[in-house]
Amino acid sequence: MSLNDLSSAMLPKIEEELVSVVRRASINGNEQFYSMLAYHMGWDKSAAVALGKRIRPLMVLLTTSAAGGEWERALPAAAAVELVHNFSLIHDDIQDGSDLRRGRPTVWKIWGMPQAINVGDAMFALAHSATLRLADTSSPEIAIRASRLLLFTCLELTRGQYLDMQYENRNDLTVDDYWPMVSGKTAALLAACTELGAIIAGANDTTCTAFHDFGRSLGLAFQAQDDYLGIWGDAALTGKSAESDLVTGKKSLPVLFGLTQNGLFSQRWFEGPIEPEEVHTIAKQLEVEGARQFTQETTARLTDQALNALASIKADNAGAEALEELAHQLLTRKQ
Amino acid sequence: MSLNDLSSAMLPKIEEELVSVVRRASINGNEQFYSMLAYHMGWDKSAAVALGKRIRPLMVLLTTSAAGGEWERALPAAAAVELVHNFSLIHDDIQDGSDLRRGRPTVWKIWGMPQAINVGDAMFALAHSATLRLADTSSPEIAIRASRLLLFTCLELTRGQYLDMQYENRNDLTVDDYWPMVSGKTAALLAACTELGAIIAGANDTTCTAFHDFGRSLGLAFQAQDDYLGIWGDAALTGKSAESDLVTGKKSLPVLFGLTQNGLFSQRWFEGPIEPEEVHTIAKQLEVEGARQFTQETTARLTDQALNALASIKADNAGAEALEELAHQLLTRKQ
Fold first, then answer.
1. Is B132 in contact with A118 (Cβ distance < 8 A)?
2. Averaged in consecutive runs of 10 residues, what is the pLDDT profile of chain A (335 residues)?
3. Closest in A120, A122, A155 to B155, CB measured
4. B-side interface with A, Cβ within 8 Å?
5. Would you say domain A3-331 falls under CATH 1.10.600.10?
6. Among candidate residues B228, B290, B252, B272, the one with its CA nearest the CA of residue B173
7. Which residues pair with A101 in a beta bridge?
8. Between A329 and B85, whose confidence is greater?
9. Which of A42, A120, B30, B85 makes an SS bond possible with A50, Cβ 3.0 to 4.6 Å?
10. How far apart are alpha carbons A60 and A48 in whole angstroms?
11. What residue spans define the domains of chain B?
């Protein structure tokens, strides 16, 4: 079975589990409260294309399968990671002042900042209550281990978020500062997805660690690739150049590399905001100073690390093949 | 042993457990991140009188003791409820735009709204990870039951908060709208404290329910009393009349009662914000229209309900006596 076959079987079950968890918000008849959560999840009528890709829950289920377990048992954890991801998006959008998410107005944009904080908090509570159903599908011990791991991961997320916000006001950052931030913001949750999948399959510690390493390296590679696309991707260089990371001022991997070269790029960066019409010239300058090659090499190295961790498990089955295919899809995407 | 003796033994252990949980935020050397959480908890140097009263963790431990258990085993749950309470305060202060908390600047006032949302999120994750240590002090089954209860309580908190914020823009509210809001915002967490204490003591379902009812009625009585003091308390009527609920416009129990009388109070209320110099006259008018008596009678009825629930358990021991004493202290306070 390919990734396509497996995900076709898994995605409807993931959505079913998600709905049954989030529905808890409407107990005692509070449909309006529920509707704000449902809107963010992409379940309202305006949401034909607003569903997330559900990459994280798929990674949990594929890992359980790759590690020799029944993926249906991992559905509570799959729902939990997706809800954690969505909780963090709701709060991120407030923190960043973002107006749009998946092409629609963000929760805070519609209902205001105070209500949006609260919607995120409700999503957080639902996420962690979702995990505990593992006590029914697996065992109380596995539920506790999974719950601890996911809560620790949320602490990592908040630490990454802290660094990201703190970096906005700093001019002394180097590439070394990049890794602790993206470890928390991106890699920790992907590492948790694959580790959770392995734990639920009852894998031994060596295998759990290898799956964790796979998820973590994949997350770091994903972020480095994202940062690459944020400057040299088609969207960043063409019509949407206002969305280029150079214009938004994001301290991404290539930017931090460029800043430590003390060349023309760094000089221009510190002069003030970059305008959309400068995007081509400055992206070129950054390339001349070596940032493009550095980012590509870094992504390739992290991708190798991820695939080596996966290969070390020697899980010669459909789940492992599908995981490898998913990793390739994520790391060769063009936007 | 009196409440005083028991709380003298418990409070240092509560603080120790809280510190050991919150310290997890500084793993990997992020002292600055930890320091924001520690500041809110009242552990920094400026905090001589900024510690919370730790009422909720005391209620957990006293209940465990009253229900015949060893209170030391309940310390993880005691820390968890206090951290949940503090998470909600951090986010409440942002949502309300409050500048001060326990006489000091609020987290958002010092570090800004985006960082404060994140500090609250970290506190939330720590709270729920605290609960899981019950797997070590009690059993995995009890840890899961406690964790489910506390997460469900957090969902109730967010639902109460949703209603509270939504009520700000509504002019059609009655006393009936008051109860679902305060059930979530205040009573749910106190009910969870006493129910958790009983669960950890291994009490049977009848006893757990009675303790839950005690906490819930106590929480409702506490809030009704708080609303009473917000209008007729010394602080609200004297120097600090700018803090009177009449001036802040809070839709408290006496206000909702007054609004449904369609008298002079209701007429004045809908004309626009009440000024500090009007506080005496309007508090008097509200009393004439019956709101003062109604609020006192409601508090008394809820207090009786709470004490009857406690008495029904027939726990004739020091823990139960101390719980009763604590209930009296809370409900006869003057500010």
1. no
2. 90 96 85 94 69 88 97 98 98 95 93 98 98 97 97 97 93 94 96 98 97 97 94 80 87 96 95 92 96 96 96 92 91 76
3. A122
4. 24-25, 28, 30, 32-33, 91, 94-96, 113-115, 117-122, 124-126, 128-129, 132, 135, 140-141, 143-144, 147-148, 151-152, 154-155, 157-159, 161-163, 165-166, 180
5. yes
6. B252
7. A104
8. B85
9. A42
10. 25
11. 3-331
Of B22, B33, B39, B51, which Cα lies nearest the Cα of B90?
A: B39
- Please give the average per-residue pLDDT across B45-66, as a whole number: 82
Task: Give the pLDDT of residue A13.
Answer: 97
Q: Which residues of B touch A119 (CB under 8 A)?
A: 158
Pair of tokens at residue A70: 């029944």
At residue B334 the predicted structure's pLDDT band, cuts being 50, 70 and 90, is: confident
Contact state of A144 with B144 under an 8 Å Cβ cutoff: yes
Is residue B50 predicted with pLDDT exceeding 60? no
Distance from CA of B10 to the nearest CA of A (A): 26
Helix or strand holding residue A141 (H, E): helix A140-167
B232 pLDDT band, cuts 50/70/90, is very high
The whole-model pTM stands at 0.95
Pairwise CB contact (< 8 Å): B162 & A117: no
Chain A residues whose C-beta sits inside 8 Å of any chain B C-beta: 24-25, 28, 30, 32-33, 91, 94-96, 113-115, 117-122, 124-126, 128-129, 132, 135, 140-141, 143-144, 147-148, 151-152, 154-155, 157-159, 161-163, 165-166, 180
Whether B28 and A159 lie within 8 Å, measured CB to CB: yes
Structure tokens at A300: 């390739």
Q: Which residue has the tokens 């106190």?
A: B190
* Complex-level ipTM: 0.95
Cα–Cα distance list, A96 to A93, A109, A168, B326 (Å): 5, 12, 11, 44
Question: How many CB atoms neighbour CB B100 within 10 A?
Answer: 10
The tens digit of pLDDT for each residue in B202-231 reads 999 999 999 999 999 999 999 999 999 999
Q: Which pLDDT value is given to residue A48? A: 53
| CA atoms of A174 and B277, how far apart (whole Å) | 57
